[in-house]
């Protein structure tokens, strides 16, 4: 069935179905984002770039908040969206740090000290 626009919903069960549809799509997008973060730590092993890239974190949050403003969200909601991203990025950075640490440990154990 076609998605209903908000004003087309005649009862709460229709509203809840649409919210469930949107939540599933958001989770799918976060899963897709995770795929790229997973690739990021692998590439950072060769560039020696750390998990935390402060300028990039700021850029991502600025972009997301600008987009939220363009969508006419009230300022408090723009801040809320920014906070959600900060939280998500915080988790991804920890994930990358852990992966990089594990990869480094495996390298040390295998006797590869990085010098060619
Ligand atoms: C993906 C990266 O790694 C980290 C995670 C980020 C993210 O989840 O958007 C952003 C910056 C990084 O600290 C990156 O450096 O771009």
Automatic annotation (TrEMBL):
Key word Isomerase present: yes
Entry coiled-coil feature ranges: none
Keyword Protein biosynthesis: no
EC number: 5.4.99.5
InterPro entries: Chorismate_II_sf (IPR036263), Chorismate_mutase-related (IPR051331), CM_dom_sf (IPR036979), CM_II_prokaryot (IPR002701)
Keywords associated with the record: Isomerase
GO molecular function: chorismate mutase activity
Residue intervals of the Chorismate mutase domain: 6-100
The protein's name in its UniProt record: chorismate mutase
Organism: Hyphomicrobium denitrificans (strain ATCC 51888 / DSM 1869 / NCIMB 11706 / TK 0415)
């Amino acid at each position: 069935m076609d998605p209903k626009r908000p004003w087309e919903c005649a009862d709460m069960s229709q509203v809840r179905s649409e919210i469930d549809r949107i939540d599933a799509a958001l989770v799918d997008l976060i899963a897709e984002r995770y795929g790229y973060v997973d690739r990021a730590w692998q590439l950072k092993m060769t560039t020696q770039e750390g998990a935390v890239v402060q300028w990039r974190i700021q850029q991502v949050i600025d972009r997301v908040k600008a987009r939220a403003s363009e969508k006419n969200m009230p300022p408090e909601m723009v801040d809320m969206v920014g906070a959600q991203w900060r939280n998500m990025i915080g988790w991804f950075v920890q994930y990358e740090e852990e992966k990089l640490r594990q990869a480094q440990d495996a390298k040390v154990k295998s006797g590869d000290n990085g010098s060619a």
